[in-house]
């Protein structure tokens, strides 16, 4: 039986889980992808965002609901669906999370460099120490929730300011969101993967589980948390899209080496560039925390020793990411290889959870809504086909590198 929690405490945890997932999605890659695709597709990128939001909601609500109903972390449910499947999924999540965390730590260093002029590597190390400090708090879960809410709010407000200064064509953006001139399937897949792919969609679901929000009676709260998380991440995406659209519609070109920085700088001058540093650091540091927490949550139940020492394993996860970054810089080859693996995680994980939702020994008398099941399987099929395509195009690039 699920322990009842005070409503205000419930809401605090739900909001924290929503922001944890959203800010895990809003990392350096999120900022770059949004800026680049806006320059390529102009106002029609609004249609891509709309379609990706619909897919994100299908994925997120399915996975969070099934986590809550089973009362187990995803890897434990997967191992019950098929022995060894959960361990495979955990390995994919941890490998992907570790590799992408290298980029997140690097993004935090870049953010501090823009804000203060501090060397990027030094900034990365200081940012990693800050993230480690979060997990050393006695109430690490609450500290993580507060950090995600605070920095998530800061990112949204600063990007909102830059959007207004860039004077985007709002009417054109609204029209092309429902009647696009250009269409890019790869952009949709990239956005979906960057929002609910890899470890990201599980960040909030596992956080709710750790906070004791589970069971059929908790589903209304879980639905609100899952939807809120997608809407928060999507709000940030839309604001950045409009800011970038205002810049490129004026005839300006984004710097290919740092597209989101040029959006902020062109729209708001030197002040905008400094604001970009704040947004980049906030996006990166919350992604560092979300990646470390969620990746380790996938291996906590594999052995009692991991469960007992999960805090220190999380610290080691961040230290290792930072050490690799400091030693060899951004490992492009590793990121490409894991990007290909990461494309497989979503269909495997979502498919496994949908199978679990139909198993009475795992969900009891709960009946998963038919529309969620069928839309979920459609996403699994589409993402599986496209993930294979991603691997076939990525691996030649990887092995072609020196």
UniProtKB/TrEMBL annotation:
<dbReference type="GO" id="GO:0034755">
    <property type="term" value="P:iron ion transmembrane transport"/>
</dbReference>
<dbReference type="GO" id="GO:0005886">
    <property type="term" value="C:plasma membrane"/>
</dbReference>
<feature type="transmembrane region" description="Helical">
    <location>
        <begin position="230"/>
        <end position="252"/>
    </location>
</feature>
<feature type="transmembrane region" description="Helical">
    <location>
        <begin position="37"/>
        <end position="59"/>
    </location>
</feature>
<keyword id="KW-0614">Plasmid</keyword>
<feature type="transmembrane region" description="Helical">
    <location>
        <begin position="185"/>
        <end position="209"/>
    </location>
</feature>
<keyword id="KW-0472">Membrane</keyword>
<dbReference type="Pfam" id="PF01566">
    <property type="entry name" value="Nramp"/>
</dbReference>
<keyword id="KW-0812">Transmembrane</keyword>
<feature type="transmembrane region" description="Helical">
    <location>
        <begin position="370"/>
        <end position="392"/>
    </location>
</feature>
<dbReference type="GO" id="GO:0005384">
    <property type="term" value="F:manganese ion transmembrane transporter activity"/>
</dbReference>
<feature type="transmembrane region" description="Helical">
    <location>
        <begin position="114"/>
        <end position="135"/>
    </location>
</feature>
<feature type="transmembrane region" description="Helical">
    <location>
        <begin position="311"/>
        <end position="328"/>
    </location>
</feature>
<keyword id="KW-1133">Transmembrane helix</keyword>
<feature type="transmembrane region" description="Helical">
    <location>
        <begin position="334"/>
        <end position="358"/>
    </location>
</feature>
<feature type="transmembrane region" description="Helical">
    <location>
        <begin position="12"/>
        <end position="31"/>
    </location>
</feature>
<feature type="transmembrane region" description="Helical">
    <location>
        <begin position="147"/>
        <end position="165"/>
    </location>
</feature>
<dbReference type="GO" id="GO:0015086">
    <property type="term" value="F:cadmium ion transmembrane transporter activity"/>
</dbReference>
<dbReference type="InterPro" id="IPR001046">
    <property type="entry name" value="NRAMP_fam"/>
</dbReference>
<feature type="transmembrane region" description="Helical">
    <location>
        <begin position="272"/>
        <end position="299"/>
    </location>
</feature>
<feature type="transmembrane region" description="Helical">
    <location>
        <begin position="80"/>
        <end position="102"/>
    </location>
</feature>
<protein>
    <submittedName>
        <fullName>Natural resistance-associated macrophage protein</fullName>
    </submittedName>
</protein>
